[in-house]
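Q: I'm writing up a methods section and want to include an example of the input and output format. Could you take the sequence below and give the corresponding predicted structure tokens, formatted cleanly so I can copy it straight into the document?
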Amino acid sequence: MGKLKGEGWRPRRTVVFGSWGAEEEGLIGSGEFVEDYIRSLQERTVAYLNCDSVASGNFSLSVAASPLLHSMIREASKKVPDPHEPSKKLYDTWRMKRPEEEGNPDTRPKINKLGAGSDYAPFFQHAGIASSDMLSDIDPALGVTSYPLYHSAYETFDLQDRFIDPDWTVHQAVGRLWGEMAVILADALVLPLDVRDYATALQQMMDELRQEHGSRLSAQNIGLEHLESAIANFTRATTTFHQTVGSVDKSNPFTVRAVNDRLMKLEGAFIDPLGLPDRPWFRHVAFAPSSVNTYAGQSFPGLADALFDIDNAADQAARWEVVKKQLAVTTFTVQSAANTLVSNLF
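A: Here is the clean output for your methods example:
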């Protein structure tokens, strides 16, 4: 970016670099920053791109992100050479090693849900800003969740030089991907956020909810039809809005601004000001860290928390009331998010 600036490049949007302190003590640096500037950040921030433990391994790229960023990330990865096979692009090896459909390398590369294991959490889970996290990870076939020296005194430059990334091409590849994403987001006239990917994600989450808890909910005479209706409305709204984005008059700054505002504000539409039950700092209704594993992402977290181990709850009647309330909150939020894309009111 310094080289681009030296050549006269001026981004259409401001790019802010942040380096956070006290992450291990509870995301203190990034958390305090977001809380101090939350109003400005929610009004003006397009996206937050996180890098942490970039070379945790040398097997493959691993990405977690808001669905809004999925398409843009995949397209950016097609421009970056693979660190081990420079004749191929990062996208190709990522898709082969981490396919979206397990065992089928012809599908798109998999993008995970965001948990709360790094500094993206305040931006995404608390402020409702589209976020991503990217690193190179170890082979999951090894059966461990992280490289064995993680958070130890042996986590040094020597470790990277001798074992993980001797020529530092893994670091370079992730850095190049971050740079491509940042430049795309900074320079695009119309923001490259694909709302249809959010609809796809919600539909998949609905299928998972029905498969895992459908029979249990039915036994309590709790139906999912209203949430299904809200997701269907959201899907229709994203389809119509995507057509609007494709036909926007790019010579008219007012119509471009109107489209970009809706794109930028969609993530924030999933924020519940009251937060999740028993953990109100986490406010994203669609995605949050699992209450039993903060590194892992959880779909419809309010519902998931209420349903977790409910058969063994001391007061099942009270827990089922929480389930009903969280189902209503989730349904209302999805419908409200759909309404942010509809332009027939304002």
